[in-house]
Write a structure and sequence with these properties.
The chain contains four helices and 30 strands. By secondary structure, the chain is mainly β. The strands form six sheets. The protein has a six-stranded mixed β-sheet with strand order 10-9-12-17-14-15, with no helix packed on it. The longest helix has 32 residues. It is globular, with a radius of gyration of 21 Å. The chain starts with a helix and ends with a strand. The N terminus is likely disordered. It binds CU-O-CU linkage and copper (II) ion. CU-O-CU linkage binds next to strand 5 and strand 29.
């Protein structure tokens, strides 16, 4: 693909997709500029970090000075600004996963913004409409950049949230390292064609099983984000009473205890945990998927008991997501399948050079579907239901940019009507996801197992 084609795509997208509404969005941005907050500087950096006893790992990527990318704090309904400064020798962008931002701020190269080249910067500004746990990551050469470290958690605070005695944020991810602690090849084609290639070293906040202190008998809000490129988790809490209070940033209609709750890359879980009364007692957050359960992080009771009660915890305020109108909703069929058609797809933003997957039988070329038309064109303000069907033997965390959907029904299980941006669809499952197309622009819809995303399972919808 030539640079010319890329430019043309950007132009086309601007004219056809977001040109008209760009004005409105810009006017709004202009308005915010008056009260513009000091931008958070997110500078990409190549560092060394220690994940294995044998020594430091080179070529680790992060935002900031060193260590894990910072947890970004925003406030619901208040302007946020960040300047991405690119100091690594690879073009990049930032996508604010799950936050309903204006299209121009969505961080998808060529579809909505140009690459941010080495030495350049890009200013992001938006007002998060929803409170909850979100995350940020590049949308360029993502297997490499995210695989090497560029994934951070976002907390959007709501002053009306119930009061907790402590809060902990956990960023879950793996690293593909060899015995010498250095990066090895990020993926194997035969795995990319199945579940994706797993990392070899597992971490939480770039550590092995970090421990957080929390007041005995107190209520802890544990915000957990799966920012790994491949791994699906089955969460369980042991040693304390725990309830899932939010999924993917949004409060759950009914709280439940996380008993091997399956969540995939891109998803988040907010847990309310009632610490044991006894000082020194340990609470364990584990992944029980597969044969060997793994402790991800622990909490330790400190001090004398606060004697709080999990049931006293007030509900979280719902986010202002428009209610889908099922009587008028148009249905969009979406089937996920494997493909035998091996188009050597030269994608815009980093290609793996393989096509293993397809959406509606089309193996899409990587991040942005260059000359390909959108999967569907939606009318601004109208209701839609995505009828999604998984014809593959693997699970796929399917993520929609720009809008949140409501999980309406599944062919294989009881589902709560949760609001989300990522749905982990199981093999042979059919699911209905309803939403109002209230955010104009071109929005990606893709599997968040990055090898799947990069080998056919990425598409986009257009809202005009
Ligand atoms: Cu986490 Cu295209 O997104
Ligand atoms: Cu997938």
């Amino acid at each position: 693909m030539t640079v010319l084609t890329r430019r043309r795509l950007l132009k086309t997208a601007a004219v056809a997709g977001v040109g008209g509404v760009g004005l409105a969005a810009m006017a709004r941005l202009g308005g915010w500029a008056a009260a513009a907050p000091e931008p958070v500087v997110l500078k990409t950096a190549k560092i060394q970090a220690k994940f294995m006893d044998v020594g430091e790992t080179r070529d680790v990527l992060t935002y900031g000075e060193g260590g894990m990318p910072p947890v970004l704090r925003m406030k619901k309904g208040e302007p946020f600004a960040a300047r991405l400064v690119n100091a690594i020798d690879d073009p990049t962008t930032i996508h604010w996963h799950g936050i309903r931002v204006p299209n121009k701020m969505d961080g998808v190269p060529f579809l909505v913004q140009p690459y941010v080249y080495t030495g350049d910067h890009f200013d992001y500004a938006f007002t998060p409409p929803d409170a909850g746990t979100f995350w940020y990551h590049p949308h360029c050469n993502t297997l490499e950049q995210m695989g090497h470290g560029l994934t951070g958690v976002i907390v959007v605070e709501n002053p009306n949230d119930p009061k907790f005695d402590a809060e902990a944020v956990v960023n879950l991810r793996d690293w593909r390292l060899g015995d010498d602690a250095q990066f090895i090849q990020q993926f194997r084609p035969r795995d990319a064609a199945k579940t994706g290639t797993y990392g070899t070293v597992r971490t939480a906040n770039w550590l092995d099983q970090p421990q957080f202190d929390a007041p005995a008998g107190g209520l802890v809000r544990l915000r957990v984000a799966i920012t790994d490129v491949t791994r699906i988790y089955a969460f369980r809490v042991e040693g304390a009473e725990a309830a899932v209070i939010a999924l993917d940033g949004n409060p759950v209609p009914q709280r439940f205890s996380p008993d091997a709750l399956l969540l995939g890359p891109g998803q988040r879980i907010d847990l309310a945990i009632r610490m044991p009364d006894q000082e020194g007692a340990i609470v364990n957050l584990g992944d029980v998927r597969g044969t060997k359960p793994k402790t991800l992080a622990t909490l330790r009771s400190t001090g004398s008991s606060l004697k709080r009660d999990l049931h006293d915890l007030a509900p979280l305020e719902a986010n202002p997501v428009a209610e889908v109108d099922l009587t008028s909703a148009r249905h969009i069929a979406l089937s996920l399948s494997a493909t035998a058609e091996n188009v050597p797809s030269d994608s815009i933003c980093g290609s793996l050079g393989y096509s293993f997957w397809a959406i509606n039988k089309v193996p899409w070329p990587g991040d942005t579907p260059d000359p390909t038309a959108p999967l569907a064109e939606l009318k601004l303000g109208k209701s839609y239901v995505i009828d999604m069907e998984n014809l593959t033997p693997q699970s796929h965390p399917i993520h929609l940019h720009g809008m949140s959907f409501k999980v309406l029904s599944s062919s294989t299980r009881q589902v709560q009507p949760v609001i989300s941006d990522t749905y982990l669809i199981q093999p042979n499952e059919k699911v209905q996801l309803g939403f109002v197309a209230d955010n104009p622009g071109d929005w990606l819809l893709h599997c968040h197992i990055i090898e799947h995303q990069k080998s056919g399972m990425t598409s986009y919808i257009r809202v005009v």
